Amino acid sequence: MEINAEALPRPAFGVPDGPGSGMLVPTGPDEPWGATVDDAFDDVDVDLDGADDGADDDAVVVSGPLGPPRRLGPGDRLVFGRGPDVDLPLGPDDRWISRRVGEIIVAVDGVRVVNLSRKYALVVQSGDYAPGAAAPALREPVTLRARMPQDPAEACLLTAGSALVGSALMLRERRAVHLRLPGAMPDVTAVPPAGTGGKTSTVAGITMNPESREFMVALQLCVPWLRDSAWVDPLPSEPEIGPLVLESVGEDYLARRVRADPQLRERLRRKVRDHLKALRKKLEARALLPAEGPVGNTVIASTIIRHDILGRRHLDLFENDYWKQVQANQWAQCLE
């Protein structure tokens, strides 16, 4: 949907009042769009689960608890909420979510998140991480107050990275909208094993977005061998990977539900299987897997580690609160 940014209403509130405060103060005419989250998070790439590498590199990707991810370009806008007349529905039966929660607007200088609700504040939770680096503290979220009668809506500007957006209840129940901007995220790039010469274009073409479910499945599959270089510990099976994922991001209650509910358990197993199949196709397309013989998960894991697609540095992500929050949001939504 095309828009004219100059025609949009201008929020009256601006930058956060001090680092990490989440409070907004009035701004002058030079800051018409509201709160700015400066350097809110590291750049991230926008490769989605199941998406082709490099597809829509300049797209802003928005995903919610229902339906497929949406890709937005400059001039696009998207309204999310309980509905019915919204672009991204969050579930019609939840009366604790506003009919129109917020709006996402893609403009030249970034992505604006606007609170449309007259009842609930809108929370924008961002973070950063780099595999192998010490885990930073979780950033204080920016809070956009509920819209008061006769007042313009509060907004914030995102310029890079990713964020979870929603009411406090949506974030707590892992039903937040996940917003991902284009850019160079600390991604996972395959390199040749030692002794094979320089990096080749076929091998270097494999990347995984650390915020995707595919990345988490690959990481959980490889965890035993990343922790023990002897490669003697057994790898988790497809039915075991899903509950391990949930437990590793703090969703112990959901993991117990999955183990006790055959239908949920099967749904999760199929999700894991689909991600492993997609990963195997990526490796096959770049001739990294054996040409003959069966290709099981042990072969996939050894290939991932041998080509340094994943390494011990990625185990540090399990200490990063923002990364775990994003992953928990992704997995909880795929089981709804």
UniProtKB/TrEMBL annotation:
Biased composition (Low complexity): 60-78
Biased composition (Acidic residues): 39-59
Region (Disordered) location: 1-78
Annotated protein name in UniProt: Uncharacterized protein
